User: Fold this.
Amino acid sequence: MERCEALVIGLGAMGAATVYQLAKAGVNVVGIDRHHPPHTFGSSHGDTRITRLSVGEGAQYVPIVRNSHRIWRELEALSGESLFEQTGLLVLTSSPDFDPADETDFTLRTIALAQTYGIEHEVLDAAQIRQRFPQFAQVRDDAIGYFEPEGGFVRPERCIDVQLRLAEQRGATLYKGETVTHISSDEQGVTVTTDQRTVRADKLVVTAGNWAGGLLGAPFDRLLSVYRQKLFWFETEPDAELVGHSPTFIFTHGPDDDFYGFPALPGEGSLKVATAQYHSASTPETLDRTVSAEEEREMYEQRVQGRIAGLTDRVVKSAVCAYTVTPDRHFIIDEHPRLQHTLVVSACSGHGFKHSAALGEAFAQWCLRGKSELDLSLFSVGRFEQECQSL
Ligand SMILES: Cc1cc2nc3c(=O)[nH]c(=O)nc-3n(C[C@H](O)[C@H](O)[C@H](O)COP(=O)(O)OP(=O)(O)OC[C@H]3O[C@@H](n4cnc5c(N)ncnc54)[C@H](O)[C@@H]3O)c2cc1C
Assistant:
């Protein structure tokens, strides 16, 4: 039986960051993935992921993303690859039901957090938004905008690839195309069985993304739901000023009418936009991985047409990617209630990539010292006590 100090199951966003940080710390680490990351079967593909310091999802995320921004730059220096593009980020609410006193509004929450944490930003009214960003139409007179110069996007496939390569250079052993089928533990450590081998480890980190519920069983199978998401790259018109002139953005135009997007990337002739849906659950095995012509047309008519100048209705590329979501849409990061020496990481409810570099560092600290410098206690599985008890 092979032995190692730390084992990581799943080498996507979270797992790649974890094996890299463990290898960097000199730990004898093994990583296992059922596919060949970066790949298109999980939650970490599609060219771009938004990152922002004022994380409207909650104050607990601000220290995490700050660390990630530091680590992306370290990884760029080590690899020579461009990973983090600081394009500026525009968050906008332009909605008929906008209430300036509504503390749940995403733009207002983002502004409040930026003020509390001293994050550089500008608050923009409708006239300023129209003047600064004429490519975005349908800005109501009572619209409110938040602009964060340090926000932008990271390139998920490249981030994963770079971290896995650097991990291997530092001695990590990575098994790709190999599926973990069983995990057991005792006081001394953990035994992980794959379709090809058995490995014994002192510590185990499970970052299995969409598959975590199936692999870990109760209570995780009940707490983690998989939701199909669609990504669209619409063709840019030849003279559109969207390349290098446009920020990364998150727009709310009404209840159930929000979407986000990225600047058009040089040489690609397209701009990526997407929505998020949480009403129709799926599984990694049954997920429909193709986007239909009907879905493309719907996206154009409902979100793009009349809202972003310089795009045609032609979709040059589309993709399906899946969120794995907890009941409160926050992360689960906690020790497994029954398996000893095992840390469980949920795929982070559709907003985890920006935090992954820093979380990898924190998980490596957990393997080494039993705790991390970042306070991750708000992500405990115990907050779902009721759900856990009913199992
Ligand atoms: C469409 C979409 C848009 C998003 N946008 C953003 C954004 O703008 N900003 C942001 O911060 N976040 C965003 N996210 C969320 C973010 O991408 C995810 O939180 C993150 O990528 C999850 O990483 P992960 O490592 O948990 O999962 P994954 O990257 O999917 O990795 C899990 C890995 O585990 C492997 N695995 C599973 N089971 C086994 C097994 N039994 N044996 C071996 N290997 C196994 C899989 O093959 C896979 O490689 C988005 C997600 C999606 C889907």
The two ends are 34 Å apart (CA to CA). The chain has a mean pLDDT of 96. The longest strand covers residues 311-325.
